[in-house]
Write a structure and sequence with these properties.
By secondary structure, the chain is mostly helical. It is globular, with a radius of gyration of 24 Å. It contains 14 helices and no strands. It is 78% helix and 0% strand.
Length: 317
């Protein structure tokens, strides 16, 4: 098991390096000069060429691209991701207070998707071609097709405006008030997790339904095992590989949905910061956020690969 984990970790390193190169290259190829933007924009004639050259030297963008990349990449692991072009604050200072709201909402959304989607998928597979199966699949189709921002607005209207159960917008740190934290994060997490829950339900149903047709399931039933044991100990574990894969990929969908959800619920998270940075062309902030999201995604894929070895011994052998 340990050699397999070490191999997967070693394979994750070049993936992270490739992501960093792509992230840095995109910002280098993006239109606009950071020095000109800092001095008033590309289209405002308020800075001379000498001023722009001096700003380039201060920002370090006049150095060779390889030197800039190495300095930026090594600085990322030291917590030095550069300085914002507009606020003058370090990127880490801008990002650090926004990590908790964003990842709390994403993790709660994935938890909802897994805790509800997988049991519904198992139930639909076990009761296939019945009214239970049809109801679950209708729910899954509707949930997957429903736009996240539309669901968010309707949740606000029903549970915040009409019923008054949850706050309309904003967030509270867990350390300040766990109760208020949950009240603020419940609706955003439901908005993020609904489509992922539908996807997990459909994938779980398909995987479990395929396994239920195998010979070893008929053998287990012929031995007199109760349905619960056959379903969870034998069928679900054999069908869990594609389910684990789709749960890992759900993280990317959750990140995308989180950006719109943060805007709707006015949550001061990384998604709103990213949108504002793209609008302002604040390149250091964009690079830092892209690396944080990419690093989290690589780590999650690594965790999924390790979980493969636990679920299926053939993988680690």
């Amino acid at each position: 098991m340990l050699p397999y984990i070490l191999r997967r970790v070693m394979l994750a390193v070049p993936v992270f390096l490739a992501v960093s190169v792509i992230t840095f290259s995109i910002m280098q190829l993006a239109p606009g000069d950071p020095a000109a933007i800092l001095l008033g924009g590309d289209f405002l004639l308020i800075a001379t060429e000498e001023d722009i050259q001096e700003a380039r030297e201060q920002l370090g963008v006049n150095r060779p691209a390889v030197v800039q990349y190495l300095d930026w990449f090594t600085g990322f692991f030291r917590g030095d991701m550069g300085t914002s072009l507009f606020t003058g604050k370090s990127v880490w200072e801008l990002v650090s207070p926004r990590i908790e709201p964003t990842f709390s909402m994403i993790l709660m959304g994935i938890f909802i998707a897994v805790a509800l989607g997988i049991p519904l998928g198992i139930l639909a597979a076990w009761k296939s071609n019945t009214w239970i199966d049809r109801v679950v699949m209708i729910f899954a189709v509707v949930g997957f097709a429903m736009p996240g921002f539309w669901l968010a607005f309707n949740l606000i209207w029903l549970f915040s405006v009409v019923l008054g159960w949850f706050p309309v917008f904003g967030s509270v740190n867990f350390s300040d008030s766990p109760t208020q934290f949950l009240r603020h994060m419940t609706l955003p997490a439901i908005s993020v997790g609904t489509s992922l829950m539908a996807l997990n339900a459909r994938m779980t149903r398909s995987s479990v339904l395929e396994v239920l047709k195998d010979d070893f399931i008929r053998t287990a039933r012929a031995k007199g095992l109760v349905d619960r044991v056959v379903l969870f100990r034998h069928a679900f574990r054999a069908a869990s590989m594609p389910i684990v894969t789709i749960v890992g990929l759900s993280f990317a969908g959750a990140v995308t949905g989180a950006t719109l959800t943060e805007v709707v619920f006015a949550i001061p998270g990384m998604g709103r910061l990213f949108v504002g940075s793209v609008t302002d062309r604040d390149f250091p902030v964009i690079q830092g956020l892209m690396m944080i999201f990419a690093g989290a995604y690589v780590f999650l894929n690594l965790a999924v690969d390790i979980l493969y070895a636990y679920l299926d011994p053939r993988v680690r052998y």
